[in-house]
Structures are given as structure tokens and as C-alpha cells.
Specification:
Largest sheet of chain B: none
Number of helices of chain A: 13
Distance between the termini of chain A: 29 Å
Order of helices and strands of chain A: HHHHHHHHHHHHH
Number of domains of chain B: 1
Structural class of chain A: mainly alpha
Largest sheet of chain A: none
Helix content of chain B: over 70%
Radius of gyration of chain A: 24 Å
Shape of chain B: globular
Structural class of chain B: mainly alpha
Number of strands of chain B: 0
CATH topology of chain B: MetI-like fold
Oligomer: heterodimer
Strand content of chain A: under 5%
CATH class of chain B: Mainly Alpha
Radius of gyration of chain B: 26 Å
Helix content of chain A: over 70%
Number of strands of chain A: 0
Strand content of chain B: under 5%
Shape of chain A: globular
Chain lengths: ~280, ~300
């Protein structure tokens, strides 16, 4: 509705919308406040409260102090694991997806619609259908419980999304452009470098943000194929809450949660527009 | 580029297919790996579901015995009932919340961008984080109930997290918080694409805003609604991390869901055959949602092509 007939009731709209927005922000605010309260302070009251004085020590402890299982190094090693899985897998899956998307949309070859159709089935197939085969394959090639194994899985599985994103973007590029370049003798790679890549800025940002967020936040593969020191940070957070179940350390745990969520939240803040575009592009598959 | 340049690449002695080998490799290897793993892994899991595998996969044939064992187990029955309840409640409530948010944001209000970012930020956070945070907020001795008690209302009760009958609703709450923003984004795009001329015509005819919404705008949203419902159902069927972090299936097995049963059978009880059977059952539930949707999309597209 784009008119002014709603004018008298507008105050209500603002009121309702602000209330809902407050409810949506509340969990974040609660955790941020808790990350600055001492464990004793939280134990005396509830999880919801104002810090008496800012306990920055929680962050130091969460980053490199407290113990998960036998090791006491905070979540730093697990953050590093997540980064070492997420960054290469994002780059590989995006680049390969861009080439594959270009191949099926503009270059065309025999069987392209078939193989593209099968690849996009990966958007729907539940992870549970691939757990056992991946376990067996990773064990056979010696990559079980390694970060390289997770990179491999996320690269191959990510291809379904990245190929779809790029293909849907590239079909809008006029075929005449490619045909003219081919008549001039340009090959597959030259056309990709000179024509396709320079046009791909927006879709590559969308794809990178999508892949990074999904791989960073992934839990099931992390917890299934790695253990102990090799786990990504999502799995480590679960291990942490199990480890401290007897003597809860909610201040430190809150700080750990904030640190683990920070990379994807920052990317969302910086590239929100592209993040939403990825969401809706994934939806209309 | 000139003709001479076109003829230059590659020594002339090499045959065409060798010269183009890097190109073929770049095109086929990733696509074939992706397609082959999808097809072969699915068939592989289906195959395991018909074998007597326990700790390691073995050959052999037990027919549907794994399926009947899974279907007869209390764990699966509870998980399936929970999925029905959770799936329906979550899908209806998150679509409704998303629609309300979209309509509110569509009133040309100030700060729309900021508000939209607030409703969408949970989507950037992992389910592990969401589940952990809500497990604190909903914990009666720690979160909302404790706060209200401390404020003086000591008879207040909000202990769904430890209540066998209500615990599944804590997952509904957290899931709505996490993904209503997604429904909102899709609905908002739909609202913005309603033909402004039709609305103007209705206004000239004297229709009020409520009437315009009920008669013109909302009916035009139903294709988007179906998309939202299908995507959210797909999410509900595969929910794993959220429950793992929020209730871990408890209290007892009160919040068990199919994805947790699969994991439990495969990796905690080492009953690979049954785990695979449970995974295939999950796939069948998903197909029961997706196949009608695909058929509907196909009919829609054909109708659009003929119109």
C-alpha cells in the first residue's frame, strides 16, 4: 500500500514493528550482555541482566583459556579449523561453480542439460543420504578426521548451489557475444577470463557470501567426520556445553558463542544485500 | 582478434582433442564428480538399507527388515509424530509471522532497511548458536522464568524446555525466530510486485485498505506462499543442529526428530542398515512434499506458456 489513507493508524504500525524488532534483537543483546558478566554474577541472578562491571576476561578465556575435553586452548584452534575449511572450500566451490555455470549456460556441450539437472538435485537430497558413503570414501582415501576431507566434501556438495547461482546469472548474457568471440578464435578459457569473469562481479559476491555462511555454520559433517582437535567451531561449541554441564560457565560460554558467530554476522552486516539475494535466488530454484 | 591469432594456439602436430583437453577436464571433472556422488551415494545408502550391516557395511539381503525395525521402534514413532507437529506448527507460524512482518514493512515506514536487517540477521547465524542461546533463555532456572521470579512474580511458569509434552514447542519458537525473516523477504518481494494500477482502481472505487488486502493483494500472494511452505517444510524435515543444541532430543526422547534418529542409529548404536533405512525414510517424507510441488510448478509453467 503506497497511499496516505493509513495515516491515523501509523503510530500503531511503528509500535508493533518496534516491539517485534525488540523481540528479534533480544537474544543477541542477552548474549552480548552475558559475555560481559562473570560466571558468579550470572549464577546469582538469571541469564538476563545488566553487567555490574565489564568482565572482558570472559573473552580472553573463551578465546584461548578454557578446556574442551582434555585440551585447554579455548576456541581458537577450532576457529582456525573452521577458517581453514571454510575459506578454501568457498574459493574452490565458487570458482568451479562459475566455470560449470558458464559451461552449461553459454558454452553448451552434449549432455549439458542432463548433467545440470542431476547436479541441482543436490539442493534437495538430505545430508543423511550421503553420510555413510562419505564416511567410507573418506576412510578409503585417508581423509577421515582431517580438515582436507571437510574441504573436499564442502567443495563437491557446494557445486550444486554455486553452479545453479552462476548458471542462472549467465543465461542472461547474450549468446551473440560468445558466438562472436568463438568466430574470432577465442577458446573456452579465454572467453571465460575476458568476457564472463568481468561481468560476474555481483553473482560471485552472492555465491561467496552464501558458501562462506553455509560452510562456516555447518555442523553435521563437522561432527560426523572429525573429532577432538580437528573439529570445526560449531562442533566445538556443542562439545563445550557438554564439557561444562556440571559447572556451567555461562559468561565464558556466551563469549565463545559471540566469537563463533562473529565472522558470519560481520559478513551479513557488510554484504546484507547480497546475502538476501542469495537467499531468494536459492528459494526460486 | 585476427585470423592469424586464431590459428596460432597449440602446435599443429597435436590433434584437436588433446589441445582441448584442459577445457574438457575443467568442464567435466567437477560436474561429473558432483553428479556421480549424488547418484551413487543415494543408491549406496539405499543398498545398505537392504543389508544386515551393523558395525561395518556387509553384503547380504534382508529385504524390508531394517525398515520394519525402524518403523516399529519407539524412537522413530516419536520422531515421526514430532516431525508432523513441529513441521505443521513451524511452517504455519513462521509463514504467518513472515507475512505480518512483510505487510507491516510494506506500509512505507521509516527505517525499513534497518528493520529488515533485524528480522533477517538470525539467518546468518548457525543453528548451533541459535539453539544454544535459546536453551539458556528457555531454561527455567536460568532464563525468562528465573528473571520473572527475581522480579517478584514467583508463581510464573515457563518451563517448556523440561516439560515432556511441551518441549517440542521450544524448537518451534527457536525455529520461528531463526527463519521468519526468510518468509518475510519472499512475501515482501511479492507485495512489491502487485500491480499498482489495480490497487489505485480499487481505491477509486472506494475500497478500504482491509478490503484491498483481502480481495486483491493477499490472493495474488498464494504462489509465493506455497514456495515458502515447501522450503520451510524441507528445512523442518532435515532439522538436526537446532535440536542437538537446544534439547539434544530430550527430555528423555521427547523432542526426537528423524535426523537425530538417523545419526543415533548410524554413529552411536552402529546399526548401519537401520540407520540407512531411516535416512531413506527421511528422503521419502521429503519426496512426499517435493514431488507434488514439482508437479504444481510444471503445470503452472505450462499454463503460463499457453496463456
Amino acid at each position: 500500500m503506497r497511499d496516505r489513507t493509513f495515516a491515523p493508524s501509523r503510530i500503531w504500525i511503528y509500535l508493533v514493528v518496534s516491539l517485534i524488532a525488540a523481540a528479534w534483537l533480544a537474544p543477541l543483546i542477552v548474549v552480548v550482555l552475558n559475555s560481559l558478566r562473570t560466571n558468579e554474577e550470572i549464577a546469582q541472578g538469571s541469564m538476563i541482566g545488566w553487567p555490574q562491571h565489564l568482565a572482558w576476561a570472559n573473552y580472553a578465556a573463551a578465546w584461548s583459556g578454557f578446556c574442551v575435553a582434555e585440551t585447554c586452548a579455548g576456541i581458537r584452534p577450532y576457529m582456525l579449523n573452521s577458517a581453514l575449511v571454510t575459506i578454501p572450500a568457498t574459493i574452490f566451490s565458487t570458482l568451479l561453480g562459475a566455470i560449470a555455470g558458464y559451461a552449461v549456460s553459454l558454452w553448451r556441450f552434449r549432455g549439458d542439460t542432463w548433467i545440470y539437472g542431476i547436479v541441482t538435485l543436490g539442493l534437495f537430497l538430505p545430508q543423511q543420504m550421503r553420510l555413510l558413503p562419505w564416511t567410507i570414501v573418506l576412510r578409503d582415501i585417508g581423509l577421515i578426521n582431517t580438515l582436507a576431507g571437510l574441504v573436499l566434501i564442502h567443495t563437491i556438495q557446494g557445486l550444486s548451489f554455486t553452479t545453479l547461482f552462476c548458471r542462472n546469472y549467465y543465461v542472461a548474457i547474450p549468446h551473440e557475444l560468445i558466438r562472436a568471440a568463438r568466430i574470432d578464435g577465442a577458446g573456452f578459457f579465454r572467453i571465460f577470463w575476458r568476457i564472463i569473469l568481468p561481468l560476474s562481479g555481483p553473482i560471485l559476491i552472492v555465491t561467496v557470501i552464501w558458501q562462506f555462511t553455509h560452510i562456516w555454520n555447518e555442523f553435521l559433517y563437522g561432527v560426523t567426520f572429525t573429532n577432538g582437535q580437528q573439529q570445526p567451531v560449531t562442533a566445538a561449541l556443542i562439545a563445550l556445553s557438554a564439557a561444562v554441564a556440571d559447572i556451567p560457565q555461562h559468561g565464558v560460554q556466551s563469549a565463545a558463542v559471540i566469537i563463533a558467530a562473529l565472522p558470519t554476522l560481520l559478513i551479513y552486516l557488510l554484504g546484507g544485500k547480497y546475502f538476501v539475494r542469495g537467499l531468494t535466488a536459492g528459494a526460486v530454484k | 582478434m585476427s585470423k592469424a591469432a586464431a590459428l596460432r594456439p597449440g602446435p599443429p602436430s597435436l590433434p584437436e582433442w588433446v589441445r582441448r583437453l584442459p577445457e574438457y577436464l575443467m568442464i567435466w571433472v567437477p560436474l561429473l564428480l558432483s553428479a556421480a556422488h549424488l547418484v551413487s551415494f543415494s543408491l549406496w545408502t539405499i543398498w545398505i538399507s537392504f543389508t544386515p550391516s551393523t558395525l561395518v557395511p556387509v553384503t547380504g539381503w534382508v529385504g524390508l527388515r531394517n525398515y520394519s525395525a525402524v518403523a516399529a521402534s519407539r524412537n522413530w514413532q516419536i520422531a515421526f509424530d514430532n516431525l508432523l507437529l513441529f513441521g505443521c506448527a513451524f511452517v504455519v507460524l513462521s509463514a504467518a509471522t513472515g507475512l505480518i512482518l512483510a505487510i507491516l514493512l510494506d506500509q512505507r515506514i521509516r527505517g525499513e532497511n534497518v528493520l529488515r536487517s533485524i528480522f533477517l540477521y538470525p539467518l546468518a547465524v548457525s543453528f548451533v548458536v541459535t539453539g544454544t542461546v535459546w536453551s539458556w533463555l528457555l531454561n527455567p532456572g536460568l532464563g525468562i522464568q528465573k528473571l520473572v521470579h527475581d522480579l517478584g512474580w514467583t508463581t510464573f511458569r515457563f518451563d517448556w524446555l523440561i516439560d515432556r509434552d511441551m518441549a517440542i514447542w521450544t524448537i518451534v519458537i527457536a525455529a520461528i525466530w531463526q527463519s521468519s525473516g526468510f518468509a518475510m523477504a519472499l512475501f515482501l518481494a511479492g507485495l512489491r510486485s502487485v500491480d499498482a494500477d489495480i490497487i489505485k482502481a480499487a481505491q477509486i472505487d472506494g475500497a478500504g485498505p482491509v478490503r484491498i488486502y483481502r480481495r486483491i493483494i493477499l490472493p495474488s500472494l498464494w504462489p509465493i506462499t506455497i514456495t515458502v511452505v515447501v522450503i520451510q517444510l524441507q528445512f523442518a524435515i532435515s532439522t538436526f543442529d537446532l535440536v542437538r543444541a537446544l534439547t539434544n532430543g530430550g527430555p528423555g526422547i521427547a523432542t526426537q526428530l528423524p535426523a537425530l534418529v538417523v545419526y543415533d542409529l548410524m554413529f552411536q548404536r552402529s546399526l548401519l542398515g537401520r540407520g540407512a533405512a531411516a535416512a531413506v525414510l527421511m528422503l521419502l517424507i521429503l519426496l512426499a512434499v517435493l514431488l507434488p510441488y514439482a508437479a504444481w510448478r510444471y503445470i503452472q509453467r505450462r499454463r503460463a506458456a499457453h496463456a
